[in-house]
Amino acid sequence: MKSKRPSVTGNRPSTRPSTGATRGATTTRRPERAPEPEPVNRQQGAVQTKVRLADKFDAYFAHHSTSAIDSLMRLLETPFQSLMTWLVIAIAVAIPAALYIGFANLQQLGENWEGSSQVSVFLKPETTDARAEEMRIRLAARADIAKVVYVSPAQGLAEFKAQSGLGEVVDSLEKNPLPGTLLVTPRLQNGSDAAITSLEQSLLADPAVADVRLDMQWVKRLQQLMILGKKMVFGLGGLLALGVLLVIGNTIRLAIENRRDEILVVKLVGGTDSYVARPFLYTGLWYGIGGGLLALVVLGLGFLWVSATVDQLAALYQSNFRLQGLGVFGSMQLVLLAGLTGLLGAWIAVVRHLIQIQPR
């Protein structure tokens, strides 16, 4: 009789799964395939974008305003250094401006002297008042004569009696020794030696004229001094303007060297030379304008200091002369000229040093 072999299935778990488990294990889901993306039509190469002209102008003016404000703020961040530079520019601008003011006042005073200068035309004793009045009208119509005044012998004697203090002597005279006189005021603003000589000869040619006294040497000296003063003012102004250019140019050069790394970075990312130079140009402009404003302050203080003395001196000479300053329009011209000088100095420094800084 065959012996039964013990089943080992009871002692160890069966590795054969049940039907349901088998179906569950063997039934595997396939991964869903992702939908293929639709083909996209891409342009080959760089994409060109049109920028409106108005946007270009807006960006241009925006960078100008930003550069102007930023350059001014940089100057105000170092007030002591900026003030020293402004003072140097102010002194260099104020000196020729003061000489110009003095020359203009001297020229005004000279015109007053020229207007008060007179040519004395002495008439012959037999010339009547009617004949003298006819000569006065004829001479006053000439283009080279500004004014003619007739002083009769009686008027001349009365003035001499009042001013000389010799009234008793004058009263004792049996006959009036003074002739009739025509006081001729010539136009000397554009006059020359030839014109003055021609006027003298034409006056002497009249048969009613006895003598002509023409003492104009001091007027000629005054005119030559004015011409010399004008040349000195322009020469000194040119030298001091050159000094301002050198001061601002050296200051801008130092500013460029201090910002060399920043300039290199801006040029590496595509910044143009004009874009990089714009803040430095505005810095030179601010230096010039600040120096011009300080020069106005210096001139104003000097004007207040001198004007009182000039008024007292004019009163002693019984003159209504008053010292004249630059005025509003002249002050604006001075500040504008100083600003343009600063801008020119900055431009020279930028052309020399900024273009040499190039990324490698």
TrEMBL record:
Domain FtsX extracellular: 118-212
An example Gene Ontology biological process: cell division
Membrane-spanning intervals of the chain: 83-103, 232-252, 285-306, 326-350
Comp. bias (Polar residues): 1-14
Domain ABC3 transporter permease C-terminal: 237-358
Region of interest (Disordered), ranges: 1-47
Keyword flag Zinc-finger: no
Protein family (similarity comment): Belongs to the ABC-4 integral membrane protein family. FtsX subfamily.
Protein name: Cell division protein FtsX
Upper lineage: Bacteria, Pseudomonadati, Pseudomonadota, Gammaproteobacteria, Cellvibrionales
